[in-house]
Known about the structure:
Helix content is 50%, strand content 21%. By secondary structure, it is α+β, with helices and mostly antiparallel strands. It folds into three domains: 10-85; 89-192, 2-Layer Sandwich (Beta-Lactamase); 203-357, Alpha-Beta Plaits, CATH 3.30.70.270. It has a six-stranded mixed sheet with strand order 7-8-6-9-10-11, sandwiched between helices. A five-stranded antiparallel sheet has the order 2-1-5-4-3, with helices on both faces. Helix 1 runs antiparallel to helix 2 and helix 8 packs across helix 9. Residues 1-6 and 72-79 have low confidence and may be disordered.
Amino acid sequence: xxxxxxxxxxxxxxxxxxxxxxxxxxxxxxxxxxxxxxxxxxxxxxxxxxxxxxxxxxxxxxxxxxxxxxxxxxxxxxxxxxxxxxxxxxxxxxxxxxxxxxxxxxxxxxxxxxxxxxxxxxxxxxxxxxxxxxxxxxxxxxxxxxxxxxxxxxxxxxxxxxxxxxxxxxxxxxxxxxxxxxxxxxxxxxxxxxxxxxxxxxxxxxxxxxxxxxxxxxxxxxxxxxxxxxxxxxxxxxxxxxxxxxxxxxxxxxxxxxxxxxxxxxxxxxxxxxxxxxxxxxxxxxxxxxxxxxxxxxxxxxxxxxxxxxxxxxxxxxxxxxxxxxxxxxxxxxxxxxxxxxxxxxxxxxxxxxxxxxx
Length: 359
């Protein structure tokens, strides 16, 4: 909106005072002079010229300021239009409070501009569970002057969105505190795609179980956590067979896939199932000893019994026996080899003094 008038300055008031004083002097001189003479006319003309000069200067100063003000308003309107057209969300923080936002940021977060202006921490779009991350990011921005990362924000409807946030400190005039200029770009869609791709790359295409590479990562994480908490972990390596033998590609046949689904239903929250070889499934059982692993295998055999012809040959070892990650997998694999040598459908538990058949 344009200003309707121009603000007068102290200089304008001084010029106006000079003009009024000069006009008063001229009027009094002409009225009181008796008789008129050439000096009086010169003084009067000088006073009138001074009045006209003061009025002209007053008009010229006002006109110049009006032009400058209109130019500034035009530049500000253009700047606001440019900021509104930026495809990224934009927010400016002045001494910890929101001083400006653009239209794209409001559309991205679902809030009205009036709801965000002058808001202070915690802002309406900060999720409570991520507040400490966002506050730390702003603190680093104040320290380093520039910062860029991905953060999680809250939409007005409560949903979470992943946002690429870039910030820079902008200095104002002398004596003014620096402001934070922050841009935001919604990367939720690409983040979901990347997460989906990571999930697909970690899965076996035939069974949907974890593949061998992801199995090793999960086993490493579970063992690390168990050692830190002083808990046990049991690893079960189970080889699926059909009709008393180990046929090729059992896990690509209908019976094998049904067996996998039955095993999924038996897995507890926190358990991990992975395909580690052609017909081999690894079952990670956190907070479980070898005896608990034997019980889990017994339940699995009961669940698979009605399929007919499907057998499980199993090797078991726990972390308390193996002591470390590499020994755990190696000893479970050794127990499986012993169980396989005894015939399809056997179970062998590794023990330091030798392998004993558990069932």
